[in-house]
Amino acid sequence: MTRKPLSYHLAPVTVLLVALAAAGNWYVQPERATAWAIGMFTLPVLWGAGSLVLRWTRRRTAEPAAFDDAVRSIRQGVAFAGVLLLISLSVKLAAALSTVGDPELTRRTTNVIAGLVLAYFGNVLPKTLTPLFVLQCDGSRMQRFQRLTGWTWVLTGLAYATSWIVLPVATADTVSMAIVVAGMLIGVTLFIRLVGTRRRTSPPSAVQS
Amino acid sequence: MNKVFKALADPTRRRVLQLLRERPMPAGELAEPFPVSKPTMSAHFAILQEAGLVETEKVGRSVIYRLKMSVLEEALLGFAQTLGVGWPDGLPAPSHDPLVKKGRP
Questions:
Q1: Chain A environment of B68 (Cβ under 8 Å)
Q2: Which of B18, B70, B76 is best to mutate for the A interface (most A CBs within 10 A)?
Q3: What is the ipTM of this complex?
Q4: DSSP notation for A6-62
Q5: CA-to-CA separations, A206 to A203, B29, B85, in angstroms, rounded
Q6: CB-based contact A207 B64, cutoff 8 Å
Q7: DSSP 8-state secondary structure symbol assigned to residue B88
Q8: Residue A53: beta bridge partners?
Q9: pLDDT digits (tens, 9 = 90+) for B23-67
Q10: Cβ of B1 under 8 Å from any chain A Cβ?
Q11: Closest by Cβ to A206, choosing from B24, B55, B74
Q12: N or C: which end of chain A has fewer CB within 10 A?
């Protein structure tokens, strides 16, 4: 019997904790009921819908491995989103109950999480490989593009999160936006360079630089 | 993560990753600069693949190796390379590098 990964158990636990945190917020701040209801039901609804679609597609595919991968992927996504929501809702609840002194803590925490999410996706970007025969340019250019874009987003995300940790809120607002704009400009420049080289070069072999 | 550390602990495997950072390469071309036997290189490739740092793809009749490193793993590679992890004691790192012997930095 194979041992299930942590995310397999983490997904239902986080969904439950998110529901509890949203219920707590609902109780403390009933005037924002819609927001808490969305927070409470979004994950279970999306998870359920994803599972239904998977069950439907399972009848049409004969690849159990692909099905297992898809189930694992959905559970990991739910766990990841659940952790983010849980942190955000917990901080909001703590702020509403006045157990934290800093009134800007909710905003800071949300933005730090946003920065870390950006860094996380930048980190895994170079690991998502497109098959060489599908690429319209040579593999080395695409690889360089993915690596540079990954590094750009990791550094942008970390700088964004750091700015919200160390700077005063008013300054962090401006600085973090400037950081994201700079990151986007670098990303767009890298993409334009990639597209430019694709147009200039005739279809090359997959492995040549 | 243990597999990644194990893969990065060996200078030959780190050199393979550095070569793949330039471009995807066929297995034969990738193994060529290293003065070790084919089975040894295959073992190195297997460890890298098991750690999820490289991926193979069949193109025509050749097997192409591609880098599959996250930003964090690449940073770890840089650290390991800078610190010379895995070099034999008392031997300066550059002279032990098989590619330096062949005149390829």
A1: 126-127, 129
A2: B70
A3: 0.76
A4: HHHHHHHHHHHHHHHHHHHHHHH-GGGHHHHHHHHHHHHHHHHHHHHHHHHHHTT--
A5: 9, 15, 33
A6: yes
A7: P
A8: none
A9: 888 988 888 888 888 888 899 999 999 999 999 988 888 888 999
A10: no
A11: B24
A12: N
Domain boundaries, chain B: 2-90
Is residue A92 helix, strand or coil? helix
> How does DSSP classify residue A126?
G
pTM of the entire predicted model: 0.71
Contact predicate A117/A157, CB 8 Å: yes
Condensed to tens digits (0 to 9), the pLDDT of residues A21-73 reads: 999 999 988 888 888 888 888 888 988 888 888 888 776 665 666 777 778 88
- Is A126 within 8 Å of chain B by CB? yes
- Expressed in angstroms, the distance from the first to the final Cα of chain B is 29
Q: Which amino acid appears at position A165 of this protein?
A: I
CATH class name, domain B2-90: mainly alpha
B50 touching chain A per CB within 8 A: no
Check if A110 contacts B (Cβ < 8 Å): no
Best of B19, B23, B73, B74 to disrupt the A interface (most A CBs within 10 Å) is B23
